[in-house]
């Protein structure tokens, strides 16, 4: 008997097939994680009006891993940054990270936009504020590039407490003078994490950076040092950054303090800050910070903020 296939019958068949396959599709996607942050507060900075401002990079991220068998897995990670006070997107859209890669017994290879070696050694993980709020450092990376686009990065498997990351960011058609390349060595054991990095930037300037974190009972100490020479090309400017900060448990919250010294050729900038972060839950915080920043031959720049952060 011949059965005539009508559009309605076709639609019903597609719906039935989708219902049958949906559990498998969701099972495959179950290793994808969606996360984010919304952080806003009131901020007042010298010579600026009181404003509603993000205390940190508001974000929406996606990451996931697929087991390929035999100890091999594929992964991806993308993170969009936006300004929650206006809803505007930051540029590029996936400004923090957009990578795909493979990992296994050989280590890890990832391609895309990602942290540079100098950022691995002097990034937010080595500062108590993690680069957020008015309390964050004026500068930590010594003018070295902290994000690499068009890049490939290889990280070795852990060799005891040590791992090595090496990579390059291709200049492609961006107008850069040269490919950027570098390496970062990281030590992680117990309460100590430390990194050192060497990097040539796209303008052929050379950067070196160091980072240290030590965690004790009820306290944490962070420090970074970085220097870049020949900024902008041969015989260019030199910049040196030093940062020391700490977090101390006080009550149910954390008291934070930071000192940052930056020198660009002969011009020095110093910054001091102190703040308090109070947890309402594991994901929601209230915070306040005050900071004073002074650059040679310029008036001091002072800031204060009161904000709320929610992670999901």
Q: Can you describe this structure?
A:
The chain has 312 residues and is mainly β. It is built from two helices and 18 strands. The protein has a 16-stranded antiparallel barrel with strand order 1-3-4-6-7-8-9-10-11-12-13-14-15-16-17-18. A hairpin with a 5-residue loop joins strand 11 (192-200) and strand 12 (206-216). Residues 1-29 have low confidence and may be disordered.
How much helix is in the residues?
A: under 10%
Element-level helix/strand string = HEEEEEEEHEEEEEEEEEEE
Going by helix content, strand content and strand pairing, the class is mainly beta
- What would you report as the Rg, rounded to the nearest angstrom? 23 Å
Structure summary, number of beta strands: 18
Counting DSSP H or I runs of 4 or more residues, the number of helices is: 2
| Strand order in the largest sheet | 1-3-4-6-7-8-9-10-11-12-13-14-15-16-17-18
The rough form would be described as: globular
- Give a quick account of the main beta sheet: strands, pairing sense, barrel closure: 16 strands, antiparallel, barrel
- Gap between N and C termini: 57 Å
Low-confidence stretches: 1-29
Strand content: over 45%
Gist of the model:
9% of the residues lie in helices and 58% in strands. By secondary structure, the protein is mainly beta. A hairpin with a 5-residue loop joins strand 17 (284-295) and strand 18 (301-311).
Give structural attributes:
312 residues; mainly beta
Please describe the topology of this protein.
Elements (H helix, E strand, L loop, with lengths): L6 H23 L2 E14 L5 E3 L4 E12 L2 E12 L4 E2 L7 E8 L2 E9 L1 H6 L24 E9 L6 E8 L10 E10 L2 E9 L5 E11 L2 E13 L5 E14 L2 E12 L2 E13 L4 E12 L5 E11 L1
């Amino acid at each position: 008997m011949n059965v005539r296939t009508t559009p309605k019958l076709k639609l019903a068949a597609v719906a039935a097939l989708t219902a049958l396959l949906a559990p498998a599709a969701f099972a495959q996607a179950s290793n994808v994680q969606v996360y984010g942050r919304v952080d806003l507060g009131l901020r007042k900075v010298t010579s600026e009006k009181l404003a509603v401002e993000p205390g940190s990079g508001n974000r929406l991220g996606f990451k996931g891993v697929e087991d390929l068998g035999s100890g091999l897995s594929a992964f991806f990670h993308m993170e969009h940054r936006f300004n929650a006070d206006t809803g505007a997107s930051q540029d590029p859209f996936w400004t923090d990270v957009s990578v795909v890669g493979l990992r296994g017994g050989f280590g890890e290879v990832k391609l895309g936009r990602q942290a540079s070696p100098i950022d691995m050694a002097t990034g937010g993980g080595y500062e108590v504020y993690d680069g957020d709020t008015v309390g964050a450092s004026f500068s930590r990376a010594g003018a070295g590039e902290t994000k690499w686009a068009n890049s490939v990065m290889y990280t070795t498997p852990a060799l005891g407490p040590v791992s090595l990351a090496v990579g390059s960011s291709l200049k492609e058609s961006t107008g850069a003078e040269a490919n950027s390349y570098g390496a970062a060595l990281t030590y992680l054991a117990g309460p100590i994490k430390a990194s050192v990095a060497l990097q040539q930037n796209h303008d052929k300037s050379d950067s070196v950076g160091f980072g240290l974190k030590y965690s004790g009972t009820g306290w944490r100490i962070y420090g970074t040092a970085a220097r870049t020479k020949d900024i902008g090309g041969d015989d260019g400017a030199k910049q040196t950054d030093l940062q020391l900060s700490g977090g101390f448990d006080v009550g149910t919250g954390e008291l934070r303090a930071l000192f940052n010294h930056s020198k660009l050729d002969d011009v020095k900038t110093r910054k001091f800050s102190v703040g308090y972060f109070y947890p309402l839950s594991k994901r929601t915080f209230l915070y306040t910070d005050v900071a004073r920043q002074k650059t040679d031959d310029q008036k001091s720049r002072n800031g204060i903020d009161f904000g709320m952060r929610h992670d999901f």
